[in-house]
Amino acid sequence: MFNKILVPFDGSDHSVWSLQNAIEIGKLYKSEIIVYHSIKHYFRAVKANTFFPFFGLATSAGSTMSQLTGMEADPMALDPAAEEQVFRSQKRIGERLLAEARKRVEAAGLKCETILTEFQGPVDAAKDIVEKMGIDLVIVGARGVHNAVERVLLGSVSSGIVNSVCTNIMVMRSECAASHGE
Predict the structure, then answer these.
(1) Of 3, 9, 34, 1, which Cα lies nearest the Cα of 129?
(2) Which of 127, 132, 137 is closest to 19 using CA atoms?
(3) 136: buried, middle or exposed (CB in 10 Å: 19+, 13-18, 0-12)?
(4) Helix (H/G/I), strand (E/B), else coil: 134
(5) How far apart are CA 109 and CA 23, in angstroms?
(6) Which helix (H) or strand (E) holds 149?
(7) Residue 102 Cα distances to 63, 123, 141, angstroms
(8) How many CB atoms lie within 10 A of CB 159?
(9) Which residues lie across from 7 on neighbouring strands?
(10) What is the band of 153 on the pLDDT scale with cuts at 50, 70, 90?
(11) What strands, in cross-sheet order, belong to the sheet with 112-117?
């Protein structure tokens, strides 16, 4: 029934809980677990005053972005060296998270593939992976690692996946599991 299970993984309690449940379901169906992590590009800006692809908005930093974030445009966003340093750091963190997830899955005796997406958000990455790999089930945490600005501008990852990915989806709530003694 579920040959391939996809799990977005950011290291949050919700993603760990989702991975644990994917492993349990995977054991029942002898599934392959595919775990992915998306690197966020906060500093990807062609020109500070005109384009912010992270937010999906073509806007004026002096007006709209300042109003949305309460901050002026950061001149560091244009510094290619700083941008590269942030990217390398995010990539190392993502690789460590995926290595830990792989260990958990393989320790349970299941096949695991890990994917680090670098230029897509987690929802778009899920859509692409589902389409390309024939995923039967996506197991996603109800919450992940996000700040208030991301939630307002981007919406939640679980909501985005539920509304845009064409396969079976299970949303896991770790706080509910704790209240039920699991």
Answers:
(1) 34
(2) 137
(3) middle
(4) coil
(5) 9
(6) helix 148-154
(7) 44, 21, 18
(8) 15
(9) 35
(10) very low
(11) 112-117, 32-38, 4-8, 137-141, 168-172
Sequence letter at residue 107: A
| Domains in the chain: ranges and CATH | 4-41+79-179 (3.40.50.620)
User: What letter would DSSP give residue 45?
Assistant: -
Give the best-scoring range by mean pLDDT among 26-30, 46-50, 121-125, 138-142: 26-30
pLDDT for 138 beyond 60:
yes
Q: Where are the alpha helices (DSSP H) in 1-147?
A: 13-29, 66-69, 80-107, 122-133
Both tokens of residue 133?
């790999």
Phi-psi label, residue 53: left if phi above 0, alpha if psi -120 to 50, beta otherwise: alpha
List CB contacts of 60: < 8 A, sequence separation 6 or more: 49, 50
Confidence of residue 152 (pLDDT cuts 50, 70, 90): low
Number of residues assigned to the chain: 182
Joined tokens for residue 179: 């209240």
β-pairing, 4-8 vs 168-172, is unpaired
d(CA 135, CA 168) in angstroms, rounded, equals: 9
Q: Which of 146, 128, 148, 130 is nearest to 138 (CA)?
A: 130
